[in-house]
């Protein structure tokens, strides 16, 4: 591949389920350390694309590499380089915070000392060290969400995939969550995030907007707003959707 | 949901009624006849000609029969030693060994009883030949009332009907309430002005009706498919069933107040149900259990209903015969329902 | 992998209620079967209508009640009350001794005794009549002057379980059910739960191989099932004296084979169900009921209709129950059930292959 600038490269990605085309010829590149927003309404094909990039689904066709590895043949190598936070919480609710960290650290092959260090660091960052032995189910939604993210990046992956990470959380927690994302990006972790909150798009370095399985626009938020003469991303999206509909 | 509620019980009734029986219609018998005389051959001939026996082995070495029992290819063996006829002629006791695989005690006891019956019959037969007038000094006759064919299904089907009704009453109603808890819809209901007992009544009445309806279907199947007699008053059965349902629903509801997830509720219901069923006398004679176990049965609603429904259906017992257990069930039902309504209020 | 097993144990131990049931249930069942539930017919209420009431008839009555099978039930004085007493459930059998019993005996006129049984419970009725006629016949044989009268004396021997105790039959059955419950049902539910909660995706995205995920999930259950089966064996051996006549090693080996089978079945169920509810229902109806009914656990398979008998052939518990009964009660060696063992091994293979196939499809 050679090009270290791009950590994700997709060329003509197509995914069909029977006759239904979920992803129609997607082409995009994500730079290292970038926060890449993957936007679209529910059912636009975001989750399908993210699953392909993570190696959960095989694409129908297209040339795709993640962290320099081919998604058809090198999924195992890819898995070592990525973190993933799904729409639903990835934490085990009947385990404590500490136990969750230990488990996830363990499956990524981290040493026990390293896990301890990371856990302390993460909890310190969130200011919830006192809660480390609480059962996850007893924690408020906002904290669980931030923990899910911390768990997803505790093994310092090259890329972290966030699938609708902020669903159902209040605006203040969402803002705090995005601060975590910025910190991760500052450390060189590429963030690939899907969302249907258009205001969150403003936080991304670049966004792609999907409508009905196709990428209708891909640029920085500022450029998109200029191009569509919109006050905010919401308007950009509405104009795009209307065009498509 | 609807097909599950209606089809599964019927399938269960059909399968259970055929599967649940200790009776061995065809006893696999191994014969060792070392006497090999007219008398011994006449005795073994009785087994050969009986439709209830299947002669799977004949050998002069009784170790072969023992081996068959060991392998499970025979249920039972009879051994006639040399001198059988001689003893009979001389009027000395002529011994016959009957060896039964007794791992399943119930089946073994029955098989043994059948075989002894045949031997006794043969004995009476030769006795009559020797001295037509004499015979045994006492003339013994017997009759089986209410079920002269000794049909095991007649006995089991009413009990299985009880199981069907119980599963609906206890499982579904309890699970339904826990489901609301799990989904969080219960909070929605709690903010409405509805009273707790109204809510619970609203939850239970549908299942109460479904269970009674299912009983009706079950009775129909019992009557048409299995020709089970219904000697007593059919309305009495429904009366008892409606009272009984209050008890099991109360128990189901009570379990639901103790649990937070459907899985837990299902586990606990299952646990309680299995113990109740095993102790109820559905499969094994309850009156032969030790006294403490019978005392325990006083809080076992299934035991009451099974004995009542068998009395009504098979013996035509009337309301005066079942008054006491019915009143106990009624008291039990109101107690357990009020307990769970009260508990319910507290848990929310 | 190690972390995985630790995590799985944490899940199990934190769900106290399920744990209590999982471990309590089999123990309670063994105790119930050992102490309370019996196949024997004894202490059954029987009433005598003695129309003679002389020394001979009273001798018969005494012999009947001395046998231990019968208890004196509600007293009735005429045959017209029999039906009423059956209907109320006060008596299970009535013995009617005809008039002038002793007098007829002395003159050789064959006095009559009639046994009337409430056959709404046919098994009990059959056994009651058989016991009572045995006793009465024995009595009447004693009266025969040692003349030339042919008498056959049957000697019944109950093999493997001389006192007809139900524990003997139920212990193998309960072990089987338990292994099914813990291994198959719990595994399938716990995998389905990961799917339902979405944590399965995260595991799949991790560098763990599917094989490692599955192995990590089932390991704790193997251990639990084994401990559970062991405790039942110990309990039944020391408290109820259920023998282990065959090789203990062989028994444990076959148990491990069956646990593997149950686990592969559980994994298979979880690959075809997407949430806990489905996994639970499938396990309940596809595993529990047939395990109890069609395995020969309680009810002999031979008398079921052919369809059910064919059906029982594909029930893994059927073969396992045959094996443990042979080892424990008959003391047989592998030469008696190598066929059953092969069948179990074959079934395990089939389920493992089917699950691998299913699992791959989900990943594709």
What does this structure look like?
The complex is a heterotrimer of chains A (245), B (348) and C (364). Chain A has one domain: 3-Layer(aba) Sandwich (Rossmann fold), CATH 3.40.50.300. The N and C termini of chain A lie far apart (38 Å). With 245 residues, chain A is an alpha/beta fold. Chain A is globular and about 50 Å long. In chain A, helix 6 links the parallel strand 7 (159-163) and strand 8 (190-195). Chain A has nine helices and ten strands. In chain A, 46% of the residues are buried. Chain A has a six-stranded mixed β-sheet with strand order 6-7-8-3-9-10, with helices on both faces. Chain B is α/β, with parallel strands linked by helices and 348 residues long. Chain B has two domains: 23-130, abc type-2 transporter like fold, CATH 3.40.1710.10; 152-347, no CATH class. Chain B is built from 13 helices and five strands. Chain B has helices at residues 2-19, 38-49, 62-71, 84-90, 105-130, 152-183, 185-190, 196-224, 234-258, 262-279, 291-296, 301-315, 319-347; strands spanning 27-33, 53-58, 76-80, 93-101, 139-145. A four-stranded mixed β-sheet of chain B has the order 2-1-3-4, with helices on both faces. In chain B, helix 2 links the parallel strand 1 and strand 2 (53-58). In chain B, helix 6 (152-183) runs parallel beside helix 9. The longest helix of chain B has 32 residues, at 152-183. Chain B is elongated. Chain C has two domains: 2-37 and 165-363, no CATH class; 44-143, 3-Layer(aba) Sandwich (abc type-2 transporter like fold), CATH 3.40.1710. Chain C is built from 14 helices and five strands. Chain C has helices at 2-14, 16-36, 55-66, 82-87, 101-107, 122-143, 166-197, 199-205, 210-238, 248-272, 276-293, 306-313, 316-330, 338-363, and strands at residues 44-50, 70-72, 93-97, 112-118, 151-159. In chain C, strands 2-1-3-4 form a four-stranded mixed β-sheet, covered by helices on one side. In chain C, helix 3 (55-66) links the parallel strand 1 and strand 2 (70-72). The longest helix of chain C is centred in the middle third of the chain and has 32 residues, at 166-197. The model of chain C has no long low-confidence stretch (mean pLDDT 83). The chains are: A alpha/beta (245), B alpha/beta (348), C alpha/beta (364). At the B-C interface, helix 1, helix 3, helix 4, strand 4 and helix 5 of B face helix 2, helix 4, strand 4, helix 6 and strand 5 of C. Strand 5 of chain B pairs parallel with strand 4 of chain C, so a sheet runs across the interface.
